[in-house]
UniProtKB/TrEMBL annotation:
One of its GO terms (molecular function) is sodium:proton antiporter activity. Keywords: Cell membrane, Ion transport, Membrane, Sodium, Sodium transport, Transmembrane, Transmembrane helix, Transport. The keyword Heme does not apply. It comes from the Bacteria. It is a multi-pass membrane protein. It comes from Paracoccus haeundaensis. Its main location: membrane. This is Cyclic nucleotide-binding domain-containing protein.
């Protein structure tokens, strides 16, 4: 094809891509359906021009279009890695981990189920060889849920639902393409009906090889990007190479799945990149990749759709019957997953509940698209595949894709409306009215300030103010009427909590943009804020508090890191996570304190004083829980919090200095040369301040012991000895520290946090400076109490021998033990012990005698 014609055609394609998006919005069709329609029209039009005698003038153009070098390798090696890699960069991996069960179910189990169902249906009903049927099943199992995701977003569907569908879109391509490569090998070898277990047994090897290749390429890329820290375009160029090197390396060198390698490389960069690269660069990187993926996705759809008329050129009546078999089998397989397996997982509490209307929308929104056509094209181009197999694969894959695009794609919005998913719930309507009312009040204050500053005509100002006041009154009345008519008191509180958590999220984003917090920690903070928002939406006040408590817990990764340090001696992961937790708690405390002002400025205006006071109370509880967790770390690592606070102040000062220099430049008070020099100086000092102080995990137990009230009367020698004997233990909220009917071998001292003790059906709470477990140790009886942490807590643990020695040396501890047995049946037995009797009052000695 002539290079000028190819260049012109490419330019026209970009114009069509630009026009397709607004046209799809106007026609209320999914963007992918519009792109496919454009491609089919171009391909069909070219065939029509060649076969008609109407005109021969456009024949060169038609020949040029039909002779475009569109090969499956272009899709697989150029466009596909771009799409998958960009999707992994945009994923909120931490939020996806909450829903990993339904995501893997839809992405992997559903793909395998659809492949097997379609393959056996074509084998039993259509008479095709089993391996050909399975190959077709793998090809058409790659869903393109971008249409349903975009509609869910436009309908304000729950974020969790959108995340599940997006996670499926990423991982099901990897699973389906891996199966496709496996079955294609058997078809090329001419093995029509091999042992299915033997075929699937090779699947783990494809995955493991892809994981290794993707991880290795991403780590090398991160090292290079760190070296090019001052050159943003160089870093972005390195990132562009990552998916292609991962894909080709896995496919050609390891014989593994290139798609899985691209997924793993993107996930690795997503997890590790924000902590190693500058925040501003990370934002720009994702914007660049977003544009690349938009172009790649549009081009792959149009170019693949160009091939549809050619792929359907030899269709027969029996082929249409087989297309119907594929359609029915695909729907049956997807329905079994959505309406049988997912509810079972929900019943077993392995998956969040997905409402039936949303499951119907997910099933109907499982469109097939460019990836399906690209895989079918790869089969039709393969010289080692029999001619009849190539024909049937091309027709069935293309026919099924057309069915999903024409039938499902064009009716998806109607199905959404029929299910009632396009209507706001009463709670969402009230939230919308609240936003409008609050926004208009702020606008009124801003307009009043502007009119006063510019000294506008009084009559004009009065007239416009009257009109605006009427609109504001209507908005406030609508919000209040909605609350009074349909929203219960608890829902008003829920609305306030959602607004509060949403503002918390905005503040986190603002702090990140101001570089007050790092990109990696901002992602964790946003993850926590999203969890709180969803908790408030689903569970109101209880859900909000539960999510807030969960955000402060030590997660499985932290416990695993502690295991590595304590048992294996690997301290790096625990030091990094502890430092992250320290910094996160400091930042969270500052943000939460600022939220009190938001409650008074905004929420009180709409929901009233009573709701505002309750929100103040709930917010204060969160602040106290954060401070408790922070105090536990302060006790363990004295001085580290101070270093982090100093770093925060330095970073804030640099941010304000940078803002001042920009303002001076914008006002023309300094020139570009001076501004560049000043900004270089700020950049150098920022690089010095970005480094976080190193956290020494060696516990300063002697300092912790010195701060403990019960050990205040010990001299330095005794404190040093106690520091060697005592152990520390960190527990999450809800963790059972001691259980009933177990031997008592240790005494616990609460260094930070709080615990709840239950004895004979009665509960008592113990806080910092208090102890428990001493009764069982002194009496050597089986424990009668169960103790559970109610906040993340730091405990000091002393064994029986050490505790008895400590009793002999500490009068304060002896007094605390005597006070703790007052009124208990074991009081006489305990007070007669030599350790306690040495300085007991005369009355107590006489009583015990």
């Amino acid at each position: 094809m002539d290079i000028m014609l190819l260049t012109a055609f490419t330019a026209v394609l970009f114009l069509l891509i630009a026009a397709a998006e607004p046209l799809a919005a106007r026609l209320r069709l999914p963007f992918s359906v519009m792109l496919a329609a454009v491609g089919i029209l171009i391909g069909g039009g070219a065939l029509f021009l060649l076969r008609t005698n109407v005109t021969e003038t456009l024949n060169p153009v038609a020949v040029g279009i039909l002779s475009l070098p569109i090969r499956s390798s272009v899709f697989m090696y150029v466009f596909l890695p771009t799409l998958i890699f960009q999707a992994t960069l945009e994923m909120n991996i931490r939020r996806m981990m909450d829903d990993w069960v339904p995501i893997l179910t839809l992405a992997v189990v559903a793909v395998v189920a659809a492949t097997l169902t379609i393959g056996f249906a074509l084998h039993w009903i259509g008479g095709l060889p089993l391996m050909v049927g399975l190959l077709i099943g793998a090809i058409v199992s790659t869903t393109d849920p971008s249409a349903v995701v975009s509609i869910f977003r436009s309908l304000s569907a729950p974020k969790r639902l959108s995340r599940i569908v997006e996670g499926e879109s990423l991982l099901n391509d990897a699973a389906a393409i891996a199966l496709f490569g496996l079955f294609l090998t058997y078809v090329m070898l001419g093995v029509p009906n091999p042992q299915l277990g033997e075929a699937l047994g090779q699947f783990p090897g494809l995955i493991v090889g892809g994981v290794l290749a993707g991880w290795l390429v991403a780590r090398i890329a991160l090292a290079l990007m760190s070296l090019f820290g001052r050159f943003e375009t160089a870093q972005i160029s390195v990132s562009v190479a990552v998916p292609y090197l991962a894909y080709i390396g896995a496919e050609q060198l390891l014989g593994a799945s290139g798609v899985i390698a691209v997924v793993v490389s993107g996930l690795t960069l997503n997890l590790m990149g924000p902590g190693r690269l500058a925040p501003a660069f990370w934002v720009n990187l994702k914007e660049v990749w977003g544009l690349l993926a938009h172009w790649a996705g549009a081009l792959i759809f149009i170019l693949a759709a160009l091939l549809i008329p050619r792929l359907l050129g030899e269709v027969r009546l029996n082929d249409l019957f087989l297309v119907g078999v594929v359609v029915i089998a695909a729907f049956v397989a997807r329905a079994l997953i959505l309406f049988v397996l997912l509810p079972m997982l929900t019943t077993l509490r392995l998956s969040p509940k997905i409402q039936r209307p949303y499951r119907v929308a997910i099933m109907w929104g499982g469109l097939r698209g460019a990836v399906t056509l690209a895989l079918a094209l790869a089969v039709t181009e393969n010289l080692r595949v029999p001619v009849e197999t190539k024909r049937i694969v091309g027709i069935l894959a293309t026919g099924f894709t057309l069915f999903t695009l024409i039938v499902q794609g064009t009716t998806l919005r109607g199905v959404i409306a029929l299910l009632g998913l396009d209507k706001l719930s009463p709670l969402d309507r009230a939230l919308s009215n609240q936003v409008v009312a609050v926004a208009l009040q702020s606008v009124r204050e801003g307009v009043a300030s502007v009119t006063e500053n510019y000294d506008l005509t009084r009559e004009t100002v009065r007239s416009e103010a009257k009109r605006f006041a009427a609109r504001l009154d209507n908005a406030v009345e609508a919000a209040e009427a909605e609350d009074n008519a349909e929203i219960l008191d608890r829902d008003r509180i829920t609305l306030g909590l959602i607004a509060l958590a949403a503002h918390e999220r905005e503040m986190i984003v603002q702090r990140f943009r101001e570089r007050a917090i790092s990109a990696r920690l901002s992602e964790q903070a946003l993850f926590d804020a999203d969890r709180v928002i969803e908790g408030a939406r689903s569970g109101g006040r209880t859900g909000y508090q539960r999510a807030a408590r969960r955000n402060l817990r030590y997660g499985p990764a932290f416990r695993f890191a502690a295991f590595l340090r304590n048992r294996i001696g690997v301290a790096g992961p625990l030091a990094r996570m502890t430092a992250d937790r320290f910094e996160m708690l400091l930042g969270k405390r500052l943000i939460l304190r600022d939220l009190h002002g938001f409650i008074d400025r905004r929420i009180r205006r709409i929901h009233g004083r009573r709701v505002a006071e309750l929100l103040h109370e709930l917010l204060q509880r969160r602040i106290e829980a954060v401070e408790t967790a922070l105090e536990g770390l302060r006790l363990q690592f004295p001085g580290y919090a101070e270093e982090l606070e100093r770093r925060f102040i330095r970073r804030t000062a640099l941010r304000l200095e940078e803002r001042e220099y920009n303002a001076l430049r914008d006002d023309g008070l300094i020139g570009a040369e001076v501004h560049i020099q000043l900004m270089d100086d700020v950049r150098q000092r920022r690089q010095q301040s970005e480094g976080r102080p190193k956290l020494d995990l060696a516990l300063r137990k002697n300092q912790v012991v010195r701060q403990f009230p019960l050990f205040a009367d010990l001299d330095d020698a005794e404190l040093k000895r106690l520091s060697r004997e005592i152990r520390t233990r960190y527990v999450n909220a809800g963790h059972v520290i001691t259980r009933k009917d177990t031997p008592a071998r240790s005494v616990f001292f609460v260094a930070s946090g709080a615990v709840e003790q239950e004895v004979a059906g009665q509960t008592a709470r113990l806080g910092r400076g208090e102890m428990f477990g001493q009764m069982g140790v002194l009496t050597r009886r089986i424990r009668k109490a169960e103790v559970r942490a109610i906040t993340p807590s730091t405990l000091l643990v002393l064994d029986e021998a050490g505790f008895r020695r400590l009793l002999k040396r500490s009068a304060a501890l002896r007094k605390a033990v005597r006070d703790s047995v007052v009124g208990k049946t074991v009081a006489g037995e305990v007070l007669r012990m030599p350790e306690l009797a040495q300085d007991a009052p005369l009355g107590e000695n006489a009583a015990s005698g």
